[in-house]
Amino acid sequence: MDVLEAIKRRRAINFFDPTKEISDETIKKLLELGTMAPSSFNLQPWEVIVVKSQDKKKALRRCASNQKKVEDASAVLIFIADPEAVEKNLDRVLDKNIELGYMKSEGREATVNAVYGLYGPKDSIKRKIFAAKNTAFFAMTVMLAAQGLGLETHPMDGFDEEAIKKEFGISEGKIIPCIVALGYLQPGVTLLPRFRFPVDEMTKFV
Ligand SMILES: Cc1cc2nc3c(=O)[nH]c(=O)nc-3n(C[C@H](O)[C@H](O)[C@H](O)COP(=O)(O)O)c2cc1C
Questions:
Q1: Out of the domains of life, which is the source (predicted)?
Q2: Which residues, other chains included, contact 80 with Cβ-Cβ below 8 Å and sequence gap of 6+?
């Protein structure tokens, strides 16, 4: 499926076929495609928990406004954004940049300064925005890749973030920008038409 077709076909699916499973291999392939998403300085400040077992999906449903699709989907992906990815990943990214020829080692210090200058100290709001923004790009790429692999998705932010953190052992400083249900459309379900505001209403050419 080409990318334009995947964009057009993607819908937020409310009714998943609860009898369908997706293999771990397929989910890993999907996430690997997702990691092709761009990220600031290539810092990739994201993590994912793949919720597949019926017990854990039930627990997640309780944290997610009791949304039935959470339990019916073959899997639900918890997208986690890590504001501390700067500390964790920067050295590794810079090493790779030098190794692959993106930069010379003399440029290392200037890049470190640029990153901290842009995203501030660990607990700053800038850090939270950085992590959540990049992880949202990742989640969107995963959703389009899923479409390409013949799967359906549904992004959600109707959940209690603290409850999910507690249930799945996610540390306090991390952020959950969204969870995404993944699976197959229940047979016989017809989707309602989608609507969008016209491009002219939200676009200015200057
Ligand atoms: C960040 C985000 C959070 C959302 N949260 C929910 C949710 O908790 N429950 C839900 O039923 N739909 C949720 N949606 C789905 C939207 O309602 C849906 O994408 C929108 O109505 C457009 O429909 P379409 O995706 O089928 O084109 C969410 C979408 C996004 C992008």
A1: Bacteria
A2: 46, 47, 48, 49, 135, 170, 174, 175, 176
